[in-house]
Amino acid sequence: MTILKAVIRSVLAGVVAGALGASAAQANSGDTLAAVKARGEVLCGVHPARHGFAAPDSQGKWSGFEVDFCHAVAAAIFGDASKVRFVALSSQQRFPAIQSGEVDVLARNVTATLSRDTALGLNFSPPIFYTGTGFLVRKDDGITKVEDLDGAAICMAPGSTTERNVAQIFAARGMKYTPVVIENNKQLVDAYVTGRCDALTKDKAALPGVRAVDTENPADHVLLPGIYSKEPLAMAVRQGDDQWYDLIKWVVYATFNAEEMGVGQANVDEMKASTDPDVQTLLGVIGDNGTKLGVGNTWAYDIVKQVGNYKDIYMRHFGPDSPVALDRDQNVLWTEGGLLYGLPMQ
Amino acid sequence: MIDATPARDGQPSARRSKDLLYSEGFRAAAYQIALAAAVVFVGLFLYQNVVENLQRQNIATGFGFLREVSQFEIGETLINYSARDTYARALLVGLLNTLSVSAAGIVLATIIGFSVGIARVSNNWLLQRIATGYVEIVRNVPVILQVIFWAAVTRNLPAPRQALELWGLGFLSNRGLTFATPVADPAHGWMFLALVAGIALAGIGDRWARRHREATGKHVDMLWPSLAVVIGLPLVVWLAFGAPHLISFPERKGFSFVGGYTISPEFVALMTGISLYASGFIAEIVRAGIEATPKGQVEAARSIALRPRFIMRYVVLPQALRVIVPPLTSQYVSLIKNSSIAVVVGYPDLVNIGNTVMNQTGQAVEAIAVMMTVYLIISVVTSLLMNTYNRLVAIKER
């Protein structure tokens, strides 16, 4: 009888906890930041293995472009970029994870779209990376443009925006293809590498990583030139907590603005002495931007000092010395003809 | 006895309610009702909670998304489908793919399982050892690893340009097995009907032979007449239609082949993986069934000089089947559910397409509910069919 009672009690406890957990997932303004501060770390949803964006390095430490944006959020809140817990999420898991409150912020190659903004109940930060659908093909197949892919078998991940974009790209050209849709990234890449597919399609920014790391001889594979769709990658948060959304948004703008003002990881301490009021505001020498956002006033200084400005972060992972070197293309400041435009931090 | 009647007791109603409280029937019913109420209550509570929270987070709910345009292509479809069709149709394509890979898997698993199971009890030492080894390997390696193994095997077949030619009839490559097929012709439908009629006739013949044997004790071998009628009838129909013999031969073109029919590597890998895994269990079930048949039965059959083939068919198997069929049902049901491993190798089954639908619409709860309901229906129908079959093969008590 006592065993039965214990079972019943634990089942009931589970039901109640489930109910509470579900209601905790609902975000009211201020809830998320308070919860993060109480927990002492930011829960950040990242890609399990996308070289350049997020992947554990040889020591098992997470490293990558999106990983650094998670660090930037932690630096802004705690003044300590290391206070992040990374949660690796598959493309299926990512949206339920942010919706249910399993993670505080999603920095996981998410393309910002209207339906995700609305039907999924998300809010998107300013895009942190502009890319588009790309195709990786074998050099000796003689494919030079997407029009050469008529009738090809194409490997892709399920449910990604890529899956739709490919359908549109081929329909627009009146061409056919056989999609081979595999969720597990290792199996997906393996299917391309072994020749099951004629092309592998992903966000263009992700393909150099595949070519450099997963293929036996990277020189045998080429990326088709051109970008065939818009894939603005952004961080995502739940709807309903405006304060948290504001913080994430301004963390991104801070990295843009720091680059624009010439404030980088290398010179941020010297720049503190700058007489430029914009720089002083950014670094918290004057003004109370941090207080307004609910964090310490040196939040942006901490980001630049510990993680870097946008250029520092980009070059660390996609610079010419990195194995997944990528041109910045549209990912340069608006002053240089790019799309990065930080709103004024007044 | 008379004293116990409530009328003379003085407190009739109290006594009666006490009786009621201690009555076994009432208690049983009360527990049932309480349990059912609790289940319904918890279910409603969870449903309410999910809907409320989704709405509070501004996440879309409901099944309206099924009518929206899917905007994605599917690699293998048994019905016409394009990116302009609805999510509902995409899920239907997935369901049909699940059913076709499961049906093929069940047939293969049954054939291999019965053969290996019979070999397990064979007197041939080598055959018996091989069968034992086979069972130990396929049932002790997790099914997902077996599927991944077969996926690796099929992917590493030669590329289409170096494809293995199969006697001019087809190609084997990493794009799958492509083989020549007859060009569609009205005769094919009639030939199929003739085949069904042939099988029915063979069944009638078999029944007649059995009655004849039971009445006279004389065995009439129906194997050749049965084969003749099953193959002969469609052949006659084919000839009657002027023997249409146009055949679509596959040819290398572009990235793969045109013409003929192609079975994809993913289908082959998935079907092989899940059916070999199930065949190990089926073999053991068959062995158990055969060994459950009393030895005396076989000895009695031998003593009247029945041929070994007949002993198996007329004495052992009919008795073994009633032990075999119930656990066999579980194997079929679990094979169907194992087909969802398709996700790992990229075969577009219900779960694979459901995943895409879920990710594009964001309606995870609804998409999962659809998938769960469909699997439940498939499994229940399979069980019902097998239970009916079980009733047919059960020993009739007279």
From TrEMBL, chain A:
Residues 1-27 form the signal peptide. The keyword Thylakoid does not apply. The keyword Signal applies. Pfam families: SBP_bac_3. SMART domains: PBPb. It comes from the Bacteria. InterPro entries: Bact_solute-bind_prot3, SBP_3_CS, Solute-binding_3/MltF_N. This is Amino acid ABC transporter substrate-binding protein.
